[in-house]
Structures are given as structure tokens and as C-alpha cells.
Design goal:
10 strands; 11 helices; 6-stranded parallel β-sheet; about 15% strand; alpha/beta; about 260 residues
Length: about 260
């Protein structure tokens, strides 16, 4: 067999090296493209759904809309709008919108099941008092209180309600004390009371805290489920059951089904 000259051997070897290098580069590019595609789909699948409730007037509409825009980039947003906001549909084009007035019971149940949190970028003294006193006589307070009853995050921006320095100087002590008492009460009820500047961060933190909650299921909860005629109790994935609760569920033939949310 005739051997190739030294230069020919070198050329063949270099061609092989180039071919391998090109194949490796193509392989890496394809792998990166696949990983990017999978990550994009994963992020889309993991995008949380939240409700943003706009029902009260604000002196900072531009700032509120900026916060809504940022949240809509990070979450699947449903806007719940009062008539005064629905009057300007161009400001909310491209959003999923539900009118607050006239919400049917079926709509409310759907929101409670689908949304991970409710966000109020604008508040009022009326809302503050109603939440503190558990009064649900209007669509806004009723919806927010139902989210509270399920232990889901409620985040309220305080900018429109917080006393400014002149109000702190001039307002009667009794008025300031009453408002401060309402604020302490809703905070004790685990409503997150935040400035608009930290709203986006607070929504993220509250959703993470909700995911980490570990509800404790007691015997009284199983007894209540039995009284209500339930055959199954749907619990969050991280729920903990006492031994007595487990035994009672077995006795009452109530299935305990854990789910992600």
C-alpha cells in the first residue's frame, strides 16, 4: 500500500480536526437552542395568575399603570375594573378584563380558584375600614375578603391612605388613632400593606410565602367536612395532618387529596 506524503497526511488530519470542530459547534448550538426553547416554555408554564383590582380613584394614575405593566410582564394578569376605569378602555387594551360591578357567583368562584393573589394598587379609607371590620357589602370588599378566607395573598398599596406630614400635624388624634388601628388590624389579618414603590417585589415575596405555607389539618376540620357532607377534602401539597385527623378521615370515609395549589 502506497503511503501518503507527509504534507498529505497533515492536510488529511487538519481536515478531520476541522470537521470534528464544526460538528461539535453545531451540536452545541442545537443543544443551546433546545435548552432555550425548553426554558422559555417552562417559564411560560410556571407564570402565575394574579388579579389586579382597580376600583378607587388615584392621584398617581401614571405610577399605578407603570406598576400594572411590570406585573403583567411577570404574571398572567386579570384586571378587575370598576366603572370609572372601564370608562377609559384604551388605557387597558390587551389585558384580560372583568367588570367589578355585576360579577356573577360563578365568576367569583373561578377567580378564587384560578388566581394566586389579589393586588390593589389603589386603596381608600372606605376599603381600609371594611377590611378591618370584615364588612363585605360591596364588590371590592366582598372579593378581597373571600381571598382572605382562603388564606391567599392580598397586597394593598397604602399611598392614597397614608397620612402626609400636614395631616399628621393637623388631624385629630382620635382620627389618626382609629386609622392606625384599622391598619394594624388588617396587617394582623395578613394583608400586605405596602408603598407603590415596592409593590412588584411584595407580590413576588407574598406568592413565595404562600407556596411555603404548611396548613395544619386538625380533627375539627375533618368533623366540619363530614357535617358539610364532603366525600373528599382537597388540601395544599404541603398540608400537615395530625394523627387524630387522619384516623377521623378514615372513620368518616373522607378522602384527603393533596394538590399543588
Amino acid at each position: 500500500m502506497k503511503s501518503l506524503p507527509l504534507n498529505d497526511h497533515q492536510m488529511v488530519w487538519e481536515a478531520v480536526v476541522v470537521d470534528v470542530t464544526v460538528k461539535e459547534k453545531i451540536k452545541l448550538l442545537v443543544q443551546e437552542a433546545v435548552e432555550a426553547y425548553l426554558n422559555e416554555n417552562k417559564q411560560r408554564a410556571e407564570k402565575r395568575r394574579i388579579g389586579i383590582l382597580l376600583g378607587y380613584e388615584t392621584g398617581n394614575l401614571t405610577g399605578v399603570l407603570e406598576a400594572v405593566t411590570i406585573l403583567s410582564e411577570r404574571y398572567e394578569v386579570t384586571l378587575l375594573l370598576s366603572r370609572k376605569y372601564l370608562a377609559d378602555p384604551d388605557a387597558f387594551s390587551g389585558y384580560s378584563i372583568l367588570p367589578l360591578e355585576g360579577l356573577e357567583r360563578e365568576d367569583v368562584n373561578g377567580l378564587l380558584n384560578e388566581l394566586g393573589a389579589i393586588v390593589l394598587p389603589v386603596a381608600s379609607y372606605q376599603l381600609l375600614a371594611k377590611l378591618a371590620l370584615t364588612i363585605d357589602d360591596d364588590p371590592i370588599s366582598s372579593l378581597v375578603l373571600q381571598f382572605q378566607m382562603l388564606g391567599k395573598p392580598v397586597i394593598v398599596v397604602k399611598d392614597e391612605v397614608e397620612f402626609n406630614v400636614y395631616q399628621q400635624i393637623s388631624a385629630p388624634y382620635a382620627v389618626q388613632n382609629r386609622v392606625d388601628g384599622y391598619i394594624r388590624q388588617i396587617q394582623a389579618d395578613q394583608v400586605k400593606w405596602v408603598p407603590l414603590s415596592s409593590l412588584v417585589r411584595s407580590v413576588k415575596e407574598q406568592l413565595q410565602a404562600f407556596d411555603e405555607k404548611q396548613p395544619l389539618i386538625l380533627a375539627k376540620h375533618i368533623e366540619k367536612a363530614s357535617q358539610e357532607g364532603l366525600e373528599a377534602l382537597h388540601l395544599s401539597k404541603k398540608s400537615k395532618l395530625t394523627p387524630v385527623a387522619k384516623d377521623l378521615a378514615r372513620e368518616f370515609k373522607i378522602q384527603l387529596k393533596k394538590q399543588d395549589s
